[in-house]
Amino acid sequence: xxxxxxxxxxxxxxxxxxxxxxxxxxxxxxxxxxxxxxxxxxxxxxxxxxxxxxxxxxxxxxxxxxxxxxxxxxxxxxxxxxxxxxxxxxxxxxxxxxxxxxxxxxxxxxxxx
Length: 113
What we know:
mainly alpha
């Protein structure tokens, strides 16, 4: 993602807001705009790879292996005799794993197209 408007808006806003030294304000605004353009302030929950302790350059086989390993561990059917709170926690974790896996597949399809 090659965005540029955060840098422009940050530089202008910094120069206007820091009137005693507009050059310094523009530089600070430019740095903050660059950080927003590069998604440095994104939360970890937005990254589906973090769910599997992988990076975005992981292969399809690594993603599938991590998904299968974790879903077999947290699948609710494996918790038949467990306490209800453990079963509910496993269902929540399985939902998170399925959502992250689906998101990765969508992202990879978009990247390949």
